[in-house]
Inverse folding.
């Protein structure tokens, strides 16, 4: 849908204005006093003028196309009518980040992964590190994701289930297949609420830095983990996300995470998100926390 | 970081239901109590409370003359809610609780002074249940406040999605539109209506909210819903559809953009004796309305400009697991 930009947008993104100065091949130029009406028969000047115009137009077009190819990655980025990048689509990570943000060899409960943290390890405060170790030991029962509850930010982004972005000028709505999470990222110039509640997904306010969407997320609760390995945060969590296209079907997602109650300094992560392009791919609701009582509904006939 | 209780406006699920149902009942039914129904009277729109209208205008399918989006869809984006009470009672929306041996709400005034049944065809306003299904519905009603079996706990109380059609008369909700999609954000569950021509999911995948394919016909969004898991009840009154059910919906919008009528044809040979039609009236809520804790759960956003921009905070339920029948279950454990 939004994956195929139109040609206008292609040209716009080269930085060369598209429009009036380009005569379209095959169209006649406006008539002049030396119009064919003043002559009859034979090869006329206006006709030659037309040829020259076509040739010039053609050269110009070629020139633009060649410049365009230098910006190939950029020019194919889908864009909204406003000109901003359009992240609409269904996305998913292929990383092992959700098993453990930090580097880890394989475990019975996790495939190996090099981690996605810049500098490899999370800078825990001593007391928080003890808590993390406890969480790790109890991960088979205590990971909030096991309940099927909302994963929070940034975990929902690199959890290995797809999520769909719906985007308008004023906001992005992220619908996660897992659980029942729906998140709004505001791009309408509004700021965080002054007297906020704590939320599972925090409060997301964004602005554009060029083609990068920069999202400030805060006002979290402390009920979510960062991964299945027990990496955690407090309600002082603050996340700054950067979303940028690498190409039309790939997003580079970066986040800076800070939480002075848990970490000595802010830390950075980076994952790549891929667009789902399978035919007829769609989100399928995953309310797994309802499975335990699935058997009781719908009503079934009483046995005679 | 402030720790206000999880009683956020978007979540009346928790706030309204957990502790004191009777107090809530009193609050929600304040209007009818202080002003006993004498004559049919058009209630004032815009106030809080779940009961608003005794009757509502009919909107017919036809041309759309209102504003359109760039992709050609009628622009119906915004906050909406139904106008005739909530999910307490499906066939007599303002009629109190059915078949409860100790009802904490009762019908106020005569039937004809209350809103009509949501069942608009057949004309008796009753769901044409097969005898076994009617028996189950009555059983559910009688046990709702004392759920001695797990199946008497309303799934919504377990944070399951409200499903179809209940999502449309539970709390207020938001409709967003995008090329190829109409997105409903309910308080319990998000529904993606595909306008993109993709086929339905394979029929062995069953979902709380079903699988929805829609298209616009003038002022009417026509949606075909398949793949129901049949687990979401239509209300506290226990009506249901099964996995074999099929729902064809028509959202008929008025050209002034202020209202729509929801009409749905429900077909299910395993539960009903015949297909039947339900009608749910809805109205739009805008920045001119006062936010309230039921239909219009918004707060003004923080920004430098003068116009009112509304924030709708996260719709989430998992942390509020409890209440309704489930509250009784948990109480019994103590």
């Amino acid at each position: 849908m939004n994956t195929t930009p139109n040609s206008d947008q292609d040209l716009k993104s080269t930085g060369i204005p598209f429009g009036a100065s380009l005569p379209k091949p095959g169209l006649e130029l406006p008539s002049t006093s030396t119009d064919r009406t003043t002559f009859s028969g034979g090869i006329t000047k206006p006709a030659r003028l037309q040829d020259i115009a076509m040739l010039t137009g053609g050269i110009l077009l070629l020139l633009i196309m060649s410049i365009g190819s230098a910006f190939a990655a950029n020019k194919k980025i889908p864009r909204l009518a406003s000109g901003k990048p359009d992240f609409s689509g269904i996305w998913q990570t292929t990383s092992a980040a959700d098993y453990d943000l930090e580097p880890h060899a394989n475990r019975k409960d996790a495939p190996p992964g090099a981690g996605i943290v810049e500098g490899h390890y999370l800078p825990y405060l001593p007391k928080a590190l003890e808590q993390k170790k406890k969480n790790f030991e109890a991960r088979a029962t205590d990971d909030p994701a096991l309940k099927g509850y909302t994963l929070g930010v940034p975990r929902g982004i690199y959890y290995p289930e797809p999520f769909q972005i719906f985007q308008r000028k004023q906001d992005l709505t992220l619908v996660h297949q897992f659980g029942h999470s729906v998140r709004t990222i505001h791009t309408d110039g509004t700021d965080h609420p002054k007297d906020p509640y704590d939320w599972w997904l925090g409060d997301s306010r964004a602005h554009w830095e060029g083609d990068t969407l920069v999202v400030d997320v805060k006002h979290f609760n402390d009920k979510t983990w960062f991964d299945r390995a027990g990496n955690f945060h407090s309600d002082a969590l603050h996340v700054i996300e950067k979303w940028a296209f690498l190409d039309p079907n790939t997003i580079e997602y970066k986040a800076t995470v800070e939480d002075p109650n848990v970490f000595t300094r802010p830390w950075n992560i980076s994952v790549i998100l891929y667009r789902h392009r399978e035919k007829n791919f769609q989100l399928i609701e995953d309310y797994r926390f309802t499975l335990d009582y699935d058997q009781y509904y719908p009503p079934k006939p009483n046995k005679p | 970081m402030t720790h206000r209780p999880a009683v956020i406006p978007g979540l009346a699920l928790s706030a309204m239901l957990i502790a004191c149902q009777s107090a809530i009942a009193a609050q929600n039914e304040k209007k009818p109590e202080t002003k006993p129904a004498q004559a049919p009277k058009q209630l004032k729109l815009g106030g809080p409370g779940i009961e608003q209208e005794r009757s509502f205008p009919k909107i017919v399918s036809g041309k759309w003359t209102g504003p359109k989006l760039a992709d050609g869809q009628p622009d119906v984006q915004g906050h909406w809610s139904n106008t005739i009470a909530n999910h307490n009672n499906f066939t007599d929306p303002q009629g109190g609780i059915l078949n409860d041996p100790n009802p904490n709400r009762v019908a106020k005034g005569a039937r004809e002074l209350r809103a009509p049944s949501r069942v608009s065809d057949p004309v008796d306003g009753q769901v044409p249940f097969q005898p076994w299904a009617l028996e189950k519905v009555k059983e559910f009603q009688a046990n709702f406040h004392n759920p001695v079996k797990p199946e008497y706990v309303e799934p919504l109380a377990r944070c399951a999605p409200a499903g179809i059609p209940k999502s449309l008369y539970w709390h207020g909700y938001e409709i967003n539109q995008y090329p190829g999609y109409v997105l409903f954000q309910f308080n319990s569950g998000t529904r993606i209506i595909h306008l993109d021509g993709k086929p339905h999911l394979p029929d062995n995948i069953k979902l709380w909210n079903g699988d929805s394919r829609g298209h616009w016909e003038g002022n009417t969004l026509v949606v075909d819903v398949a793949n129901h898991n049949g687990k979401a009840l239509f209300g506290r009154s226990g009506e249901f559809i099964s996995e074999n059910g099929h729902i064809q919906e028509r959202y008929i919008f008025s050209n002034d953009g202020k209202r729509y009528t929801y009409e749905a044809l429900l077909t299910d040979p395993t539960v009903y004796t015949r297909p039947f039609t339900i009608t749910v009236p809805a109205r739009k809520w805008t920045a001119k309305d006062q936010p309230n804790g039921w239909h219009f759960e918004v707060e003004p956003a923080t920004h430098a400009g003068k116009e009112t921009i509304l924030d709708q905070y996260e719709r989430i339920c998992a942390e509020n697991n409890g209440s309704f029948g489930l509250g009784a279950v948990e109480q019994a454990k103590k």
